[in-house]
Amino acid sequence: MTDYAARLDAALLTHTAVPQFKAGFDVTAAYAIQQDVVARRVARGERIAGIKLGLTSEAKMRQMGVHEAIWGRLTDAMKIPDGGTVELAKRIHPKVEPEVAFLVKGGTIASIAPAIEVIDSRYLGFKFTLPEVIADNTSAAAFVVGAWQPVPDGVEDLGVLMEINGRSAEKGNTSAILGDPRRAFDDALRLAGKLEDGWIVLAGAATAALPLPAGATVQVTVEKLGSVSLRASS
Ligand code: OOG
Ligand code: MG
Known about the structure:
CATH topology: Fumarylacetoacetate hydrolase, domain 2
Bound molecules: 2-oxoadipic acid, magnesium ion
Number of domains: 1
Number of strands: 13
């Protein structure tokens, strides 16, 4: 198991994808590998900044043949400021997806913001089994969070738009996230065991992820929550 973590960590550090392991580890073992992968980052000085949920949409669950969301860990090194730049030289084959972020306080939701997640599978061709993607910290690479605000009444039916270079690229709705993104928060609490004050919870993508082209500007707008953006280096 240590060997899988070492290979995934090397892929991260060298920005070079690895072939799928084709090994028979199960979901429980996969979370242990993920913990090892993240512990290596923490040993290098990164701090845990929160939790991300994945496969929270019906479509993605059906695609993977699963009935439960997966989760991964966010670190401070993954955080990009709103409007900031993703250095493509340090990535493998990054994709962007529109998300909703929650800020934790007292074990509950303190505030909400529009967000963009950058996923960057460490496996060749973004191809993996469910245990493999869990071991790979659910493809987590980077994230951007917009301005925090009080949770408005009803966040289960908000329009979501992702624009790339000013053109509409994906449209969706927060209802795609487990019917209501607040369920993703409850899942995060259940799956992670505890959520610390100041942590961020990424609820999962509201649409399909799209490749991040060099030099692109990506903007995500969530109805009632406003916009957030990032740029890709050229
Ligand atoms: C796994 C990560 C999925 C989401 O929001 O559903 C995810 C992947 O598709 O590479 O972050
Ligand atoms: Mg995501």
